[in-house]
Automatic annotation (TrEMBL):
Subcellular localization, as worded in the UniProt entry: Cell membrane
Species per Swiss-Prot/TrEMBL record: Desmophyllum pertusum
Domain of life: Eukaryota
Family statement drawn from the similarity comment of this UniProt entry: Belongs to the G-protein coupled receptor 1 family.
GO cellular component: plasma membrane
G-protein coupled receptors family 1 profile domain sequence ranges: 40-302
PANTHER family hit by this protein: G PROTEIN-COUPLED RECEPTOR
Transmembrane annotation, as ranges: 28-49, 61-82, 102-124, 144-162, 187-214, 246-264, 284-305
Main location: membrane
InterPro entries: GPCR_Rhodpsn, GPCR_Rhodpsn_7TM
Gene assigned in the entry: MTNR1A_11
Entry keyword set: Cell membrane, G-protein coupled receptor, Membrane, Receptor, Transducer, Transmembrane, Transmembrane helix
Protein name: Melatonin receptor
Membrane topology classification: Multi-pass membrane protein
């Protein structure tokens, strides 16, 4: 019987005939993804609105752009798929299907292109000269770049709609997608090339160069530090701790994004080659969950790795008593002196270790002052590794007095 049915018709039968256990598991999982994406990106948005300092650096502008696209996906993309998994079919009219299909393509294109631009930003800041970076990446040019990213993102779904095609509910992927005919006419190749392959090549190329540059910078710095310790001559570094930290945070964002989207890209390539959807329904459901899960990662990454975002999260969540007031006060004392930006920190900073444990900066203080800095750093690391319990008042005072 299945030989006379199309693949999507087979998927439709399987969707309706799922066992209760599978239905509950799939529905709960995608609802959790939707909640995490909505709440996390909303929290990030509130943090940015309440703290103007979070909007004053170029890297944070790209972070905000990603959060906007992810939040919009949690509003007009994921909920419709969650409802479909719950009831076992598409419960909405055709207009909603066209809206979801257009919206998902738009948001995915915006996210991938934003990550590509972010990779270029980090390449120019870490690999090229600071003067060139400041010339190319100021707030004005960054806003123009973001506007171009969104305009280009509209050209992901626009050709499909302009050609008279309609999105249809894909019973395997459980969201509204382009039809199989578009795979034959080159639209699938257009999407894969322009909105997947090119951004991916840019991301991999730029971050490979960035990683190599950071490794060289760290090695050179260690050699200078050894020479300086023997000659007592001051040593300078072209990259600050904050700049390296921001680079690593954005690299983790890209890794998380690619972890979620690599299965999606592979499955899309298989479908494009086959010109049909020949994989199992469970594969396509996983495909959708991976893609949607990527929208919930960024707020978590910033909350863990970025002290300024973490401190603002704590201020917002303090009335909900998610963390004790004592823990929040300790973290705020540590974070009030973090300017969160490679454009805002003086390059002559103390010898310390960033969040991934790599040394980057030389201190030009006297030995007695350096001892205080070391004590301060130990106190900060202790607070970072333990989110509960009482903290020594002297450690907090040091963290406030000697910002690293």
């Amino acid at each position: 019987m299945n030989a006379t049915l199309t693949t999507t018709e087979v998927f439709a039968q399987q969707l309706k005939s799922r066992s209760t256990a599978i239905q509950v598991t799939e529905s709960v999982f995608i609802l959790l993804i939707n909640f995490a994406s909505f709440a996390g990106n909303l929290l990030l948005g509130i943090a940015v609105i309440k703290n103007p300092n979070l909007r004053r650096t170029v890297p944070n502008m790209y972070i905000i752009t990603l959060a906007v696209s992810d939040f919009l996906m949690s509003l007009l993309g994921i909920p419709f798929s969650a409802a479909s998994l719950i009831v076992g079919e598409w419960p909405f009219n055709n207009f909603v299907c066209q809206l979801q299909g257009f919206w998902i393509l738009l948001m995915c294109a915006a996210s991938l292109q934003t990550l590509a631009v972010t990779a270029v930003n980090r390449y120019f800041r870490v690999v090229r000269s600071r003067a060139l970076y400041q010339k190319l990446f100021n707030m004005k040019t960054t806003k123009i770049t973001i506007a171009i990213v969104w305009i280009m993102a509209f050209f992901a779904p626009l050709p499909y709609v302009a050609s008279g095609h309609e999105f249809f509910f894909h019973t395997g992927k459980v969201f509204c997608a382009h039809d199989a005919e578009s795979l034959y006419h080159g639209y699938g190749a257009y999407l894969v090339l322009v909105y997947v392959a090119i951004p991916l090549i840019i991301i991999i190329t730029c971050y490979t160069r960035v990683f190599i540059a950071v490794r060289k910078h760290n090695l050179k710095f260690r050699l200078r530090f050894r020479a300086r310790s023997q000659s007592n001559a001051p040593t300078e570094s072209s990259l600050s701790v904050d700049e390296i930290n921001i680079t690593y945070i954005l690299l983790v964002v890209v890794i998380g994004f690619l972890t979620c989207w690599t299965p999606v890209m592979v499955i899309d390539m298989i479908d494009f080659i086959n010109a049909d959807w020949k994989l199992k329904r469970q594969v396509y459901v996983s495909y959708t969950c991976f893609g949607f899960a990527s929208t919930s990662l960024n707020p978590v990454i910033y909350g863990i790795m970025n002290r300024s975002f973490r401190a603002e999260y704590l201020r917002i969540l303090a009335p909900l008593k998610i963390w004790s007031s004592q823990t929040a006060s300790v973290v705020r004392a540590d974070d009030n002196h973090d300017d969160n930006g490679d454009e805002a920190r003086n390059n002559h900073q103390s010898l310390t270790r960033n969040k991934v444990g790599v040394s980057f900066e030389i201190d030009e203080r006297k030995p007695s002052e350096q001892s205080k800095v070391v004590q301060c750093e130990r106190s900060r690391l202790y607070r970072a590794n333990s989110w509960a319990g009482k903290r020594d008042a002297f450690s907090i005072k040091l963290a406030s007095t000697h910002s690293l």
